[in-house]
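Annotators were shown the component list below and the corresponding predicted structure, then asked to write short factual statements about the assembly.
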Amino acid sequence: MRSIYLGSVVEKSGKSMVTLGLAKNFPGRAGFFKPFKERLMREGDRVIDQDAYLMRKVLDLNKPEEVLCPFTYDIFRPIHMDDIKKAYRKASCRCEIMMIEGTREVTTGYLNDVSGLAIAEATGSDLVLISTPEPAALDKIAMLCKLIGNYKIHLKGVILNKTDDLSVANFLEAKGIKVLGCIPHIPEMTYFTVKEVVEALSADVVVGEGNLDRLVEGVFIGAMTVETALKYMRRHRRKAIITGGDRSDIQLAALSTDTSCLILTGGLYPANQVVSKAFEKGIPILVTRYDTLAASEMVDNLIARIEPEHDEMVRLVEKAVRDNVDLDEVFR
Amino acid sequence: MRELLEPASVAVIGASAERNKVSNIILGNIIKSGFLGPLYPVNPRHQEILGLRCYPDILSVPGDVEMAVVVVPAKAVLQVMEECGKKGVKAAVVISAGFKEVGLEGAQLEKRLGEVAHRYGIRVLGPNCLGLVNTHHHLNATFAQEGPRPGNIAISSQSGAICVVVLDWAANINLGFSKFISVGNKLDVDEGHLLEYLRNDPKTKVIGMYIEGTDRGREFLRQAELTTKVKPVIALKAGRTSSGAKAASSHTGAMSGSDQVYDAAMKQAGVVRVRSIEEMFDLLQAFSTMPLPQGEGVAIVTNAGGLGVMAADACADNGLPLATFEPSTIKRLKEKLPPAASLYNPIDVVGDADSERYDHAIRTVMDDPNVACVAALLAPTDLVDISTVADTLTAFAGSSPKPIVTSFVGGKEMAAPIAMLKAAGIPNYPSPERGVRALAAMVEHRHSKDRPEPRPVTPYPVDRGSVQEIIDHVRSEGRLQLSEAEGKGILQAYGISTPREGIARDLRRAIDLAETIGFPVVMKVESPDIAHKTDVGGVVLNIDSSEELTRSYEVMLSKVREKLPKAKITGVSVQKMVKGREVIVGMVRDDQFGPVITFGLGGIFVEFLKDVTQGIAPLDRDEVERMVRSIKAYPTLTGARGRRPGDIPALVQVILKISQLSMDFPELEELEMNPVMVGDEGTGVTAVDALVTIKGEQK
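Structure shown to annotators:
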């Protein structure tokens, strides 16, 4: 059975998305393994990795998420490579290819000799690097290519994500680095729902309970004068506005533009009249105890989650990978 | 509206027999005001209230009911309204509170109330209001302690508290009202409806409005425009400042909107805007008692030079000219005034003036064709018999062909004479400034009343198809903001010229481009991630050679990369450097008033100088010309200090085209051309930059 290790060059390169897309495009049956948990979710009493949950559903795997993604990485309490190998065997199923998804960056775990490179070697996997195209990432790709010489692994190449600029790919190829594809930015991938914001901020929904499935395409902080705020608010659609509960002026201005939800911070509830207006417009108002800075950081860190039930999004990812990645080369 | 304000029959639903209950006071007020039609208290718990037979519900009332005053708890209002509908009630005044103003549940209730009223076609005033008064119809359906006396002033107020204040204050200065309407939450009836009604109300001579916010701004504007052609409208719009707006927003839930937009809207509609209740009363007094001036020249008659000077200053502050007297006027003045008197405007009848001197001076100037209105000032000098002067002046009440205001300035000595003036219907003010302000408002209204009908604007031939294509394309990509090139595409489709330009991916191509276009050029960074190019050093002006362009290119890119390392830079745009006077022209679609066109001084100091003016589209040529003339920097456009005049006709055309564009494409949310370069006369104007935003969907 063949296996591919998908390692990320920089954080937030979209490795989960690419893993999903590749697995969906594999002509035979694909299995999934991810040594270390990242973003967690609750499923009843269990705390499981979101990617494992997604892949189990999408690939229709019959092993529980705890098997597909067993460990938590702690730099001071390392997991031994033998345990990882055992877990990998346990996760493997009757399939033609195993997709192994790395953790954060491919170098994560280096200190304890369980980096992505080491795991790829230990599991006999081919390596595919996933990266975004900014200059710092390109330098790192070059460095990794050198480093790989120290391991007995085969680097299939690099997939550049969130770019349609082929000149970067050509540039890398000219340097002798194989580029397997350039996947353009999929804006829908960065959207999240109001419901996810509610969960991330443990917020109270004051009004608009029925509209939590609205998409949020961007987040703005409303702390300036209304005139200035309005300027920004007019220019961006389906946004979440973070402001204080006492800023009725900003809140009403936001309600007058294309806004997906209002996030009021500091535990301050909005004025009655604002609630009434939001009710008329059907726009959810969330109240959180966090201050504006903390709330905005938490929302910023929300990575759009692909729900297995969200067929349209899964199809979108599948198509983006099919159209832009040299699948023959990846799966050969 | 007739059924609401002049009902033939009234029911008070929820009338209580208990004294001091709101519903009991309202019923009592209706009785006390002498309402002539049938009046039905409705309350299942009583047989009789205040001597009237009480009915268990509205459906049991034997006769027709045109208007119902609803004073039941909020929860019961829906059912009451349902019954009103079945009974055939035409209008309802919902006094009850507990709606939109209390939050989610209230808002839900108010929405359902609107649905019920709509289903039965019932006009609704309120909810959460103080009620209404129609003095000439002998109807006081409010719970205010003091009913107003009949007169010719109509008042509407968005704040119940302001209603009470106005009533109390009015009683003190002897003002009479025709209508008095508290609009509350404005579920249905708002200022727009009221203006339409009051415009045609023969009993109303002047309309005063207290407004915190409007939901139907455009309709308000339309009705106000029609009304000010007939009678004055004075508006007190609270929430002028950002602090005030914030307070108003949580109070009424209406976004109070940009104050400048309100100002522009009111100016355009001919509404006189006041800043305080005091000023509102000052103006109402003058409009209520005096005829409108026929011109604008002011004559000042005073017994103290100092007051005269202050009044003259106030005239200048308000843009009112002091009248220049005809020689015959001066001759007549000379006949009866002492040698020490000043015969020119302001006329100083000197400290020992008696009533005869005042009378002579005032009558003489009133005969002068250059005088449109008169301010008579008096200081309590030792030698003047204040009461006799006041008594003489009362003769001008009601009969004066030209408006006259008085300002008897002082304290103790003045109380009785002032009371005499007020009782007679002469508006008196405690300071010359306030008197002059009242005259200025009357002159302002005179001008709006006489303003010419807007000249129909012939639309310019434009290429709407291209604009639609651009908008559709932007929409298909899920964007709201247009690129500069797309924005300029829209301008070009409307025949607004933009500089020659192109986009280059690298330095070599940029140099080629600049040489084709011809130096000097402007170079700007191209990036979908950068909105404010100047702020990150992404704009270099006046590049006159390829060597200079090479240097600027390197520096510019390094600056941008330093400030915004993550921005994707796709190249640079190279643009012909255009010379001229910098102005800005823009459009923002206001939530309440629709497209607002901004024009003003451009350049780097625009943020501080704020030399801008606004108008609500569609604009006609007169309005645009007025806008262009109104900025302080206008002389720089006409060629101050020996410079050649700018191409103002071309500028006016650009503003008119933006007005047309904003009306043609409601999906345009915002458009800013900053700067627009106004060339010398005959050379045209060029829009150098264009920032365009389209409307989002969730509105």
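Statements collected:
1. The interface with chain A takes residues 100-104, 106-108, 110-111, 242, 245-246, 249-256, 258, 478, 480-481, 531, 566, 588, 591, 669-670, 693, 695-699 of chain B (CB under 8 Å).
2. Residues 195 and 223 of chain B are 6 Å apart (CA to CA).
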